[in-house]
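2024-03-11 09:14:02 INFO receiving multi-entity request
2024-03-11 09:14:02 INFO entity count = two
2024-03-11 09:14:03 INFO echoing inputs for audit
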Amino acid sequence: DSGVTQTPKHLITATGQRVTLRCSPRSGDLSVYWYQQSLDQGLQFLIQYYNGEERAKGNILERFSAQQFPDLHSELNLSSLELGDSALYFCASSQFKGQVGSPLHFGNGTRLTVT
Amino acid sequence: AQKVTQAQTEISVVEKEDVTLDCVYETRDTTYYLFWYKQPPSGELVFLIRRNSFDEQNEISGRYSWNFQKSTSSFNFTITASQVVDSAVYFCALSGDQGAQKLVFGQGTRLTINP
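2024-03-11 09:21:47 INFO inference complete, emitting structure
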């Protein structure tokens, strides 16, 4: 058990809808990351938050947004969903405090299916 | 730009055989970190090892060993006396010295250990 909690485990929704994925990092970790895993794109970095502030942005669509709250949990919001958004969404956390190199510890993922 | 290449898409061996998973990386950073993650059929991503660019010592952990060679930009992973439980997708990943922690993943190698 990595200590990172993601909810829900599965999500099935229709095109055009909006969903929110939630993540609680490991105790003591200030940094949260979101990754998308799809068959054609592999594991893609979406966004990183450190202590409530956005730290790095990857291939995140404008329809997607995220935030990290004062209690350090994070939410990833996906809107105007398309069939191609179906994927496994991972949250990870690390002890990153400005220096790179800390291992990322991943949650079990949320499997999103858009129909 | 950073890139990780895992040329072996799938490997299938018989139990007790030794198997090596290849990882080649590209980066312009002088300081960087390499990682291996395991994704078993249950779907979670499990951290296995981290290596920084200044530490070229090989690492051994039980049946697992890692060979880091800066001269060939490779960070290969060997499983000795493989077991069925080793069946998983294995990902190699790279993080550079950019003030943020963006892990760039390879496409993964699906390893199947047959009894």
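2024-03-11 09:21:48 INFO post-check: Chain B touches chain A through 27 residues (CB under 8 Å).
2024-03-11 09:21:48 INFO post-check: The first strand of chain B starts at residue 3 and ends at 5.
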